Amino acid sequence: MKIYLINICAAITLCLAALTSCNTDAEGTIYDINGEELAFASTQMNVEVTAADNGIIRVPVYRGNTSTESTANISMDEATIAEGIFSLNNPAVTFAKGEAVGYVELGFGEINNLGATEKYEIVLTIDNEDQLSPSQLGKIKVLAQRKLTGKVSDTELILLIIE
């Protein structure tokens, strides 16, 4: 039994030694926060809208420096403006002190303004490049479409499976 316990302790010690890193230097780049440090979460956002959305798509804008109040102007691409379906409900996102997330609201009126199977591409841009974070994610493509909903009866489902 003693040999078994010694072997277990030795195995645990070896595992801990193998998992311990000898490198104590910090890796990566540390950036100073000297501006608003604004960014979108990614370069693309996919959205399926329903009537429950009340004609609004909310797109988050993040910031790294929350020590002061801030405002960011947002613009929408000309093709979307010309299409006339979507509009910017708030062309400026305002952040209160301590607030890290603000939202751009895209309005589309009611759900029936959108085609049943149409996909819409809206490009939003943070206008002032000096406000961007080091990631430089100041542009996002929002791909919007209606969420397809429908009810299929059990009989129709069985017939579809049989075919």
Commentary on this structure:
This protein is α+β, with helices and mostly antiparallel strands and 163 residues long. It has helices at residues 2-19, 78-83, 154-162; strands at residues 38-39, 44-49, 56-63, 70-76, 87-88, 92-95, 101-107, 119-126, 139-146. A 5-stranded mixed β-sheet has the order 2-9-8-4-6. It has a 4-stranded antiparallel β-sheet with strand order 1-3-7-5, with no helix packed on it. The N and C termini lie far apart (66 Å). The mean pLDDT is 83.
What key phrases describe this protein's structure?
163 residues; alpha+beta; 5-stranded mixed beta sheet; 4-stranded antiparallel beta sheet; 9 strands; 20% helix
What is the structure about, briefly put?
By secondary structure, the chain is an alpha+beta fold. Helices cover 20% and strands 32% of the residues. The longest helix has 18 residues, at 2-19.
Write down the secondary-structure element order: HEEEEHEEEEEH
Give the oligomeric state: single chain
Number of helices: 3
In total, the number of strands is: 9
Helix and strand content put the structural class at alpha+beta
| Share of β-strand residues | 25-35%
The main sheet orders its strands as: 2-9-8-4-6
Outline the biggest β-sheet: 5 strands, mixed
Low-confidence stretches: none
What's the rounded overall pLDDT mean? 83
Shape: flat
**Rg, nearest Å:** 26 Å
The rounded distance between the terminal residues' Cα atoms is 66 Å
Fraction in helix:
10-25%
